[in-house]
Amino acid sequence: IGIHTEEFRNEEVDKTNLRNELNFEDDDFVFMRTGQISVRKNHEVIIRALAEIKNPKIKYLIVGFGELEEQHKTLVKNLGIEDRVVFAGYRGDVKKLLHAVDAYAFPSLQEGLPVALMAAMSVGLPIVCSKIRGNVDLIENGQGGFLYDCHDVKGFADGMQKIVSGKGSEMGKINIETMKRFDIEAVNDCMYKLYSELMN
C-alpha cells in the first residue's frame, strides 16, 4: 500500500483561520485524531491521558463521528476538560487540518496498515500511538513517535508531554523521510522490480 505523500505535504493552509474556526488559540498545542468514534478507534485513552496532563494549553481535536460520541462527550465533561477537547464531526478538509495541528494521536485497538497515520506522518507530524500491527511497521518507538499499550493512559500522557516539550520537531522530520518509502511511486517501482525478477 502507498499514498501520494506530496498531496498531503503541498496542501495550502491558512493555519490561523482554521485554528480560530475550531476555537484553538495560536499557542495551543493540538493533538488530532481522525476516524470513527468507536471502541476500535479507542479515543477514550487519549481523553483520559489529556485529563492527566495539567497543562490547559494541550488540546485534542477529534475529527469524525460514531456511536460513542455522546458517551465520550459525557466523559470529557465529567473529567472537566470540555474546553480542551473539540468534537469536529465529519470534515472534508482533513488534509488542511493536518497542517493546522501540532501532533497526531492514533491509539487504535486494531488496524491494518493505517492510511490516516501515513497521512499524518507525510506532513511531518510527531505521533503518539498504540503498539499494534500496522503502527509498529511505520513508527519506531522514540524516533517518529512514541508507542504504548492500547490502554496505557499514563504512558500516552507521558508521550504527549514529551512531544509538547520539544521532541516533536525532530520526530516530524523522521516521519517525512519514512513516508518517502511508502509514496505510491516508490511502492510501484518496488513492485515492478519484484515482478520483473520473478518473471526472469
State the assembly state of the protein chains: single chain
Residues in helices, as a percent range: 40-55%
Secondary structure tally: strands: 6
- End-to-end distance, in Å? 24 Å
Order of helices and strands: HHEHEHEHEHEHEHH
Neighbour order of strands in the largest sheet: 3-2-1-4-5-6
Gyration radius, in Å: 17 Å
Mean pLDDT: 88
Beta content comes to 5-15%
Class from secondary-structure proportions: alpha/beta
- Biggest pleated-sheet summary: 6 strands, parallel
* Number of helices in the DSSP assignment: 9
Low-pLDDT runs of 5+ residues are 186-192
C-alpha geometry: globular
SSE map:
Layout: H1 5-9, H2 15-21, E1 29-34, H3 43-52, E2 58-63, H4 69-79, E3 85-89, H5 94-100, E4 103-106, H6 115-122, E5 127-130, H7 135-138, E6 145-148, H8 153-180, H9 184-199
Parallel strand pairs: 1-2, 1-4, 2-3, 4-5, 5-6
